[in-house]
Amino acid sequence: MELRLDRVTKKYGNKLAVDRLSTVMGHGVYGLLGANGAGKTTLMRMVCDIQTPTEGAILLNGVPVRDMGEEYRDLLGYLPQNFGYYPDFTPWRFMLYIAALKGLSKGAAKEKSMELLKEVGLAEVRNKKIKTFSGGMKQRLGIAQAMLNDPEILILDEPTAGLDPKERVRFRNLISSMAQERLVLLSTHIVSDVEYIAKKILVMKAGQIIHEGSTREILRAVEGKVWECVVPAKQADAMAQQFNVGNLKYVEDGKVLLRVIREGKPAESAVQVEPVLEDVYLYYFEG
Amino acid sequence: MWRLAGYELRKICCRKMVYVSLAFLIFMNVMTYWRLGPSSERCLTAEGEMLEGVEAIRYMQEFDRRYAGVLTDGRAKEIYESSYPPEAVDKAGGDFWYVCPDILQYLDGAFYESGGMGVESLFTPEMGEIHLGYHRGYSMLLFSMINIMLVVGCVIVIAIAPVYAEEYSRGTDALILTARYGKTLEVKAKLAASFLFSSLLCLAVIAVNYILFFMVYGTEGGDTSVQVDFTKRNWEIPYEMDYMQLAGYCVLIWLMASLLLTGITLVVSAFCNTSFTAVVFAAACYVVPVWFSLPGWAAVLMPAHQMLPQGVLNLGCIRIFGREVMSLWIVAGVCAAAMAVSGIWSKKKFAGRQVV
Hints:
The complex is a heterodimer.
Chain A: E1 3-12, E2 15-25, E3 28-34, H1 40-47, E4 55-60, E5 63-64, H2 65-68, H3 70-73, E6 76-79, H4 91-101, H5 106-119, H6 135-146, E7 153-157, H7 165-178, E8 183-188, H8 192-195, E9 200-205, E10 208-213, H9 215-220, E11 226-232, H10 233-242, E12 244-250, E13 255-261, E14 271-272, H11 277-285
Parallel strand pairs in A: 3-8, 3-9, 6-7, 7-8
Antiparallel strand pairs in A: 1-2, 1-4, 4-5, 9-10, 11-13, 11-14, 12-13
Helix pairs in contact in A: 4-5
Chain B: H1 2-13, H2 16-36, E1 42-44, E2 50-52, H3 53-67, E3 69-70, H4 73-82, H5 86-92, H6 96-99, H7 102-113, H8 119-122, E4 131-132, H9 136-160, H10 162-170, H11 172-177, H12 185-217, H13 243-271, H14 275-291, H15 296-299, H16 303-306, H17 310-313, E5 317-320, E6 323-326, H18 327-351
Antiparallel strand pairs in B: 1-2, 3-4, 5-6
Helix pairs in contact in B: 1-12, 2-9, 9-12, 9-13, 9-14, 10-13, 10-14, 12-13, 13-14, 13-18
């Protein structure tokens, strides 16, 4: 399977949300990293064919997705950034409704719905109204509905928003286990969501992919640019204003341990450290 | 598709505002039945006794039965001269013409107030033979239904306006439009559920009221000519029609109005981003035309005007290919076309939505 984005552009009046973006994706997890307003959600909506590109094309195995219609939507699972639901529906009824929309037979819908609700830990509350759920529970329901039709292309827009760390780990493992035979495009601000499972990371800024590659390749961009130093608290405040500080931790004797992303040494006592993906994020979006 | 239509029907019916509006409709119906129904009837007997409720109805039915039949100048004279003793008339005073049996009331308007005009002057040949009879049940039923049906229109607007608009405001449009049948069967299901809801609501209201009235008044007098009710000028229908036919045509017109209003509301819903704006604009489409003095043909194409079936039926007939065709059928054809267009238009708008 090959999903090709060929110079995809989206304009809203004079504003360029996605700017001549080209990339190719196949099976595996693709992490889409970017700050708010980078164009991630717009890109995902175009991949889902619920927004039309101003220019360019999105092709699945050489065929424009716009022309595939139902056939393409049959392969798709989508969790939007702001997951919409019907407050007076129960998760059970909601899943059966989405299953009907996705073309599952009644029997298959019941079986798959129960399986997925168990998977996301909502089986026991399946007959309670969604309006009584917490944010995390609603998000889990959103993940479950996206997977109803065993999609070959799974688009998840900030899927771990509202989930606690344990739930995020569970979700990460779930995605990782199912990504062998499908394409998963996942956008997030939480780099740990993709750091360990993504085949490829796409760093997006101002509507363009500014860097793409495996986690290792992405990290190379900031190799030699990540420093740690222990400085007095007053100096730490000044450095936080001046440099791109990834982490600030108070240690003993009124001193502060800083993690700084910078081309050169930020302080005499600074030592180079191994970069992590979060450093890449800060390097591109805070610098 | 019908599985999806079931879910859509559930979504329509399970909104709080729909419950509230249905409760108001039931309240209006009860109040109207109490105010205009059998319990509000009064009749002065020839002995000068005032009867009320079912007793009054039975007295009037028996009185009118004596004089039922084809109306002629001779019969009208016979009814006037043989009916009420002067003492009973004096006792009622100025209210006599409101509490006497129907046949006397109608003749008063037709022959007395108009200066003694005869049958041939008041009724045209196209109206056919004018049959007298007791038809008060039909009369009161149709008069009370008009108010109730106007409220039914409001319920339809409240229930149908969120069909598309609420999907936009909830964000569920993104889920629907990315599902396999989201742009195809689902939009058809929405249309099916919407029109089904409106027709069932309209027919249920009609059925309940028809049953309530006919249970007490009976169906007697269905062959009475509608033109007989001349004084009230409710039905100025220029062709032959009796009350049974009128009751049937009114059902058709109310159903047509409900479905046309549904189509209009669906279009508004597809274009509005929230349920609130959809309700406001759809309500405006329903109510505003009532305030304007539209020409006859334009007025009868508006759902609010159609809820008053007189407008459609009083238009008369049109000659098409040498045959006289009731204007009702032309209006019905135009409305059916408008419904089809609105359904297709709203479907396309939703399916082509750019989710933001």
